Amino acid sequence: MKNLVFIGIIAGLFFLISACADYPIDDKGMLITTRNQCYMSMFELLGPDNRTVLVSGQTVIDTVACTVTAVARFGTNRTHLKPYCSLVTDAIVEPEMGTWVDFTRPRKYTVISGNRQVRKEYTITVGLQGQ
Fold first, then answer.
1. Are 78 and 103 in contact (CB under 8 A)?
2. Would you say the C-alpha torsion 70, 73, 75, 81 has a positive or negative sign?
3. Burial class of 52 by CB neighbour count within 10 A (0 to 12, 13 to 18, 19+)
4. Claim: this prediction has a pTM higher than 0.90
5. What's phi and psi for 21, nearest 5 deg?
6. Maximal C-alpha separation, the chain
7. Kind of pairing between the strands at 40-46 and 82-87
8. Rounded Cα gap, residues 30 and 89, in angstroms
9. Integer Cα distance of 48 and 51 in angstroms
10. What is the pLDDT of residues 10-55, one digit of tens each?
């Protein structure tokens, strides 16, 4: 019985290692897969207190035109915001999000597919509530 368990563990490790070897790794340590889908599905902006500054239900992501239009609450300082987004599986975004950014003018982010062959440049525009 112990030998059977040992053989099962060895076989499982073999399959796990061989499955990971099918995909190369990019310069950031991310797997390069066969997925060619490339889109942003959610966008969020956080203020200095790490709370959302966006008006609920006012963010529009157009995956055809590659635009994001968001509305920040009245009085938000758009010069110091942290963007975050959700992407389709295996895609990445450049430049990386999660750092302080000035959104007083439109910003451009590139979404890159899992196979790293499809690139879509999104323009993100943040307006103020009441304007």
1. yes
2. negative
3. middle
4. no
5. -75, -10
6. 73
7. antiparallel
8. 12
9. 8
10. 766 666 555 555 678 877 778 888 999 999 999 999 999 999 999 9
Rg (CA), the chain: 20
| Strand, helix or coil for residue 97 | coil
The encoded tokens of residue 85 equal: 């987004």
Tokens of 106: 């439109």
Lowest mean pLDDT among 16-20, 80-84, 117-121: 16-20
String of b and e for 88-127 (b: at least 16 CB within 10 Å)? bebbbbeeebeeebebeeebebebbbbbbeeeeebebebe
Query: Which CA distances in Å does 117 have to 20, 38, 80, 83, 111?
Result: 20, 10, 32, 24, 11
At 108, which amino acid appears? K
**Of residues 45, 107, 98, the one with CA closest to residue 71:** 45
Tokens of 101: 């950014």
